[in-house]
Design a protein that fits this description.
heterodimer, A: mainly alpha, B: alpha+beta, four-stranded antiparallel sheet, 31 strands
Amino acid sequence: MTTFDQFRDMYDVAFKPRLLTTLITDYLPNQNHPFSNPSQLSKVVSLIKTHSLLSESVTESMDPKAIKAWKSSVTSWVDRVLLLVSNHSPDKRWAGISLLGVTCEECSSDRFIESYLMWFQKLLSSLQSQEDSHLVKVAACASISDLLARLSGFPKFKKDGSASAVKVVQPVIRMLNDDNSEAIWEAAVHVICTLITSFPFSIQRHYDSVESAIAVKLVSGGCSDDMMKKLVHCLALLPKSKGDEESWSLTMQKILITLNDQLNLTFQGLEDETIRKEFNGLLSQPGKQPPPPLGGCVSTEEASNNITKRSKQSQTVNVSILMSGCCMMLTNIYPVKVNVPVRLLLVLAERILMVNGSLPEMSLPFMTARQQENVCSELPVLHMSSLELLTAIIKATSSQLLPHAASIVRFITRYFKTCVLPELRIKIYSIAKTLLISMGVGMALCLSKEVANNAIADLSIIEKKNGGMLNGSTTDVSTVAPLLVNNKKRKHSSANGSLQEYDASGGLGVEVPKKCAMAPISLRVAALEALETLITVAGALKSEQWRSKVDSLLIVVAMESFREGSSNEEINGFQKKDPAATAADLQIAALRALLASFLSVSRPPYLSQGLELFRRGKQQTGTKLAEFCAHAMLALEVLIHPRALPLVDYVPPNNDTYDEAQFSFRDEYVSRNHTTPFGLPQTEPPNCVNNMFANYLANGDDEMGGLWKENTKETKESSQMATSLPSSTDIQERNDMVSETATNADFEMRTVETETILKSDHLGESVKQIQEPIHEPVSVASNPAVIDIHGDAATSTDIEPDRIVSDSTIPHNEANNLELASPSKSPVQASDTKLVQQFAFDLNYGNSVDGDDDDSFPDIVDGDPDSDSDSE
Amino acid sequence: MVVVLASSSDAGGGIGCWDLHTGSEQIRYKSLSSPCHGLTSVGDRFLASSQLRDTATSAGSVFFWSWSKPQVEVKSFPAEPITPLASNHSGTYLVGGGLSGDIYLWEVETGKLLKKWHGDNTAVTCLVFSEDDSLLISGFKNGSIRVWSLLMIFDDVRRQEASKIYEYSFSEHTLCVNDVVIGYGGYNAIIASASDDRTCKVWSLSNGMLQRNIIFPSKIKAIALDPAEHALYAGGEDGKIYIAALNTTKITTNNHVSYITGSFSNHSKAVTCLAYSAGENYLISGSDDGIVRVWNASTHNIIRVFKHAKGPITNILVLSPENDSSNHVSSNLQVASKKKGAQFPPLEKYTNSIDEDSDIKTIVSLGGSKRCMDEVSYLSSHVISSYSKELQNQGSAAASEMEIEKLKRDCQKSMQMVNQWKKMYDNLHQFCVKELLDENAK
C-alpha cells in the first residue's frame, strides 16, 4: 500500500484493510520476536470491534478493489492468528487463542462457516493438552465457547455443531474436577452454560457427571462467592439441557434436600420444631425413594468433613447460595410446564424468616453464646435470601399464586412488624409492591393498611425533625400533626432500629444526635415507592382512612425533599457511603408518589403546592428530576383542562328528543367552541384544544391562575364531600328532604344549561361573552378525564324524587343543606380540626389572591358558609 | 384477524365463528344448548362452554374445544348444571355458577376444583372477573349482585373470622340480573348491571355505592360498554338497543329526565346479547331469532348479518387471535396447530377432601409464554482485556506461571545454544590439536 493512497473518510472501506494491516504488523506478536507488550492486545480488540474490521460487510456499491484488499487482509489476519495458536511460547499461544475467539465473534458468516471446523480442531487440541498453563486453558475455554455460541446462530449447522460440542464436554469436566484454579473453573462453567443453552443434546449424555462435578464444588465450598454464584447458576440451567418436567423437579428437590441438611445443622436448637417437621413432611413424599443427594454419596462425606472444618459462616453462605439457585430455577425460562412445589418453598422461606436468633427455652443448655453469636451475625443474609425466594415464587406463579396469596399476606404482615434492618425492610416493601401490582384490588384490600402504616412510620420521622422549619407553611404541619401522634409508638421502634443500624455501620457516632431519627434514604425511597404503588392500585378504594394521611404526608415529604436536596447534598455525599440512593433519588420518589396521589383522586387536595414543586423541579436542567417533572406536568395538565371526549363520533338520528340535551352537555367543549356540533372528527382535537387555550388566555393574565385556585377550591370542597359520604342506611330518612333540595339544584342547573347553549350560539361573535364564564370553570372541574365517580354522583341530583334510590344525591345537597351534612361527617372524618384548617386555608388563599372575584363564584361561598364563619 | 363467536340455546346450533372483516364463517363447533354467559375463551388457549342437555334432566356439562377442531375435546360433568362460566385473563382459573347459587372455581391446568362456595340462594346468572383478576362479580336470579375478593375466598382463616365473605352485596335490583359488565380503571372501575326490572344500574367499585339508576321502557337482557365509557348500550326485550349516557352531567327535557340518549333497532325480537369490538367500534348484537348483527357504533348502521341458528343467541364473544397475518386461513391453522398441544384434564366434580394439601404443587410455565432467545455472550475479548494487564505487569500467579514457562523455554533454547557452541569449540579444538600434531609429525 502506498504512502499517499489516501482514503476518503473514516467510513470508507479502503480504510479498514489499511488499519487491519497496520494492526497485524505493528501490534500482533510474530513468530520470531518476543511478545513484549500484551496490553496492546486489548487496544487491538477494541479497534477491531469499533470499526468492525473483520466483518467484511460489503455492499455492491463499493469499490471491488477495496473489497478484495479487505478480504486479503482479513485472510492474513486469520493466518497470523492461527500461526500464533500453534506457537510454542505460551504467551503467544495465549494471544493467538484469545484472538481466534474474537475472530469467531467478529468475522463474517461466510468465513466462519468456511473455516469453523478447522478452528474448532485447533482450539480443541489446546483444550485437551494437559500441560498447558492456566491462562492458555482459560483462553481456550473462552474461545471455544465463543465459537459454539456463534455456531448456534446457524440453524443449518445444528447437527454438526452438536457433534463437535460433544467432544468438548469431557475435557471441560476434567478441568472442573482436576484443576484447582478458580479462573479455569469459571471458564469451564461458562463453556457448560453455553453448551446447555446452545447445544443441549451434547450435554445430555454427560448429564450426571456434569451435575456431580458442579455439585461437589458447590457443596464442598472453598470457592469465592462469585464462583459459587456461577456454579449455582450453571446448576440451575442444567435441567434445561434435558428440557423435561422430571429433571427440573429432580434438581429442585436435590437442592432442597441439601438445603434442608444445611439448615438443620445451622439452626440446631434455634428453631421451632413444628415448622421443621412440616418442611420435612413436605419434602419427603411418602412412598417415594428420595433422590440421591447433590453431588452423589461420596461427596457428602467429603462435604461433611469439610463442614466440620469450616466455620459456621461459610455454611450460611452456602445456604444463601443454594437459595439463590432455587430463585434462578424459578425465574429462568423453561421450555415446558413444571410442577413447582410452591407450598414447600413458602414453608422454607417462612422457616428461615421465623428464626430471629432467640433461644427457645428447652434448648438453652445445648447452645453456647458463641454459637448463637455466629448464627445471629449471619441471619440478615439468610433473611434476605429467603425474601428473595419469596419474590421469585411470586414472580414464577403470577396469577396462580391465588391459593397461597393469603398465607403470604399474613406472613408479610407479621414480618413487617418485627423487621427492623433497613435492607430487609426495603426488600419487604418491594415484595409488597409486586404483590399489589400483580393481584390488584383484592390484594390492596388486605395489604393497604399494613403498607400505609409502615411507610408512614418510616417517613414521618423527617417531619418531627424539621417540624420547626415547616411552620412557615402552616397548613401542612397542622394537617400532619394528628398523624404524628397516631404513629408515635411505631415510630419509636423504627427509630431505635435506625439507631442500631447507624451504630452498626460505624463511624457516624458524632452525627447520632441529629441523625438518629432519620431512616436511611434508601429505606425512605422504598417506602415512597410502596406508597406510590398502593395509591396507584387502590387510591380511592373504600375511601379508607389512610388516604388523607398519606396525601398530606406525601406533600410534606416532597416539599421537604426540595429543601434538603439543596443544602445537605455535599456533606451527605462525603460522610455517607450510600451510593445506592441519594437525595436526588428520594426527591424523585417523593414526586412520583405525589403525582400518583394527585392522579388517583378526582380532587387532589394539594394540587397547587404540588404544581409549584413540579415546576421548580423542571428547572433543574439535565437531571432525572427535570425529566420526571416534565412528565408530571403533562399528566396533571389533564386535571386542569379536563377533556373527556367520546371515543366514537356520535351521529344521532335526527328526530330524537334526547339529542338536544346530549348536545348541550356531553359535548360541552365542542358546543362552546363552535366546531362541529356533534362530537369531533378524530383528526380535529388539536384544533379544539387550541381553542380551549385561546378561551383561557382571552380572559386575561390572571385567569389561568384564577382557574387553578378555582380548581383547588373545588377540590377541597369536594374532598370534604367525598369523605363525608353518609352510609347507605340513612337514605330513607333523607328522601323527604331531597325533594326540596332537588328542585333547588334543578333550578340552578337549568340556568347553567341555558347559559351554555346561549354561548354556543353566539360565541363566534365576541370574545367578551366568554370573559365572565361564571359556571364554566365549575363544570370543567366537575368533569375530569379520570373516571369520575363523584362527578357523576354530584350531577345526578335532579332525577325525580321517586327514583332516588341512590344515596349519591347527598353530596351535592350537602352543599346546600349543611344541617344535613354535619351529622354525617363524624363517622368518617379523621378530625374536624383538620377540616377547619383546610377551609381556613382555602378561604385565605382565595381572599388574598382574587378577593375581587369573590362574587363571581357564588356557589363556592354558598357551599361552605359554616367554615366561612369559623375562619373569620 | 378479529373473529366473532356466537352460541345459541338451540340444541343443534353449535357455536359459530365468523371473521368480522370478511364475514366468512370460519368453523362451527359442535355443541348442545349453551346457556347465557356460558361461553368463554380460556386465556385465548381454548374455548369453553357450559352445556345444558335439556331442562328435564338435572345433568349439565362443560365442554372444551381447541380452536381448530369442531369436535369437543374434553367433556366434564360438574356436580350440578353450570350456567355462567368465566375464566380469568391469563386462563389459569375457570369459574362456574350453579343453579343452586354455588360458585365453583377450577384450576384449568389440573382440572382440580379448588374452591366451591355458596354465593346466594338462587341461581347464578352471570360471572365477571375484574380487570386485575382479583375480584369476581356475580349476578343472581333474585336480583342481587355480589363482589367477591378471590383472595378472601382462598383465605380460610379470614373467612372464618369475617362475618361476610363478599366485599359488596348489591340488592337494589328487584328481579333477575341478566348481565354485568365492568369497565376499566382498576379500583375506580364501574360495574354496570342489567335486570329484568327494566333498569340498568351503575355501581362504583371503589366504595360500593350506586352511582346511577337508568330506567328503560323494557326489560334489559344485555349490556355493553364502549371502551371510553361514554355510553352504555342496553339491549331490551322489545328488540331495541338503547344508548345511555354515562359521562354526561344529566339530561333534562321538558320535565322528563333520563340518561337515555337514543335507541336503534332492527330486531324483530328481543336482543339477548351484546358485545363491543373495540378496534373497529362495532357493536355486535344477538337476538332471539338466532341472528347476529354487527352495527357501526357511531352511525348505527348494520354492517353485517350472520344467520346463526333457529333458537335465540345466548353468547357473543369477540376475539382477536394473536398472530395477525394477511392470510386468514393459514393463520387460523397456525393458531390451531400451535394450540393443539393444549390438552387439559376435565374438571373435577368435587373438591378432593382426602388429599388435604391439594395445593402443594402448582403447574406453572416458567418465564411466561414468551420464548426469547438467550442472549449469546462472548467471552474471549473479556479474557483478553482482563488478563493482558496481568501479563503486562506479571502480577498474578497465573501470569508468573506463564512467565516461568516462557523462561524455561528460553533456558532450554540457551542450553541448546551452549551445547552447540561447545560442540563447535570441541570441533575447533580437535581441529587445532590435529593441526598441531600433524605439524609436529612433519
